[in-house]
Amino acid sequence: MINRGKYSVLGVEISAIDYEYGVEAIINAAKMRSPLAMTALAVHGVMTGFSDPVHRRRLNAFDLVTPDGQPVRWALNWIHGIKLPDRVYGPTLTLKVLEAAAIEGLPVYFYGSKQETLDLLLEKLQVKFPGLKVVGAEPSKFRRLTPEEKQEVVNRIKNSGATITFVGLGCPRQEVWVYEYRNHLSMPLMAVGAAFDFHAGTVSQAPPWMQKRGLEWFYRLIQEPGRLWKRYLLLNPMYLTFTFLQMLSISKQPVLKPTGMEPEESYG
């Protein structure tokens, strides 16, 4: 089990952990009904914090920020000499937590994505984990919620008996959601991005050899060039540039902490 603490990558604190530690921390918090904010960040996620100081403060309030992409793990190793042997990929961590939740009898809730994706996801998860207790699943409204609607979401999740909520709203909306709900829900809130689509089978994952070499971005770019070209062709070179500048101690982004003054976004 590996937990070497948190280290700054472009001002965003990344947790140098492995899957075993991540699963144990999340399951323990679920059993104790303790709040725990978790996300898995690839390059795009780190760059949202790099480019937006307000969002960086939100991310640095999280309990676990795992290195979702290989380039984020590489940055930990290059800059800080961590020698982390593997990344902690959100979709894989999702399955490992669901497996443990099924064994422990811990009820789970899913928030986000589309209804048809959730239906497919739950159908496949019930086959994969027959003992899994799913006590709720609601799609995104793809808009901001009113204060009354937000309270209704809190009440639905609380009243469901859930002990873990998986959030799939896309980056950075899902991280904002977790940040804003973390003090309202005493349970782990896991921002897991494309895990809903991957495990529902609506979006294909890159083959293992591409994942190992940090080429998932290229695989997804080929799939959705119109939507993703700016994300990858602009952000990836910027990420590498500033990572090397930090490694050489030429440029270092400050690790900003939340002030409590972050604007309420109420994504739903």
UniProtKB/TrEMBL annotation:
CDD domains: Glyco_transf_WecG_TagA
Any Pfam family: Glyco_tran_WecG
InterPro entries listed in its UniProt record: WecG_TagA_CpsF
Protein keywords: Glycosyltransferase, Transferase
Origin superkingdom: Bacteria
Full protein name: WecB/TagA/CpsF family glycosyltransferase
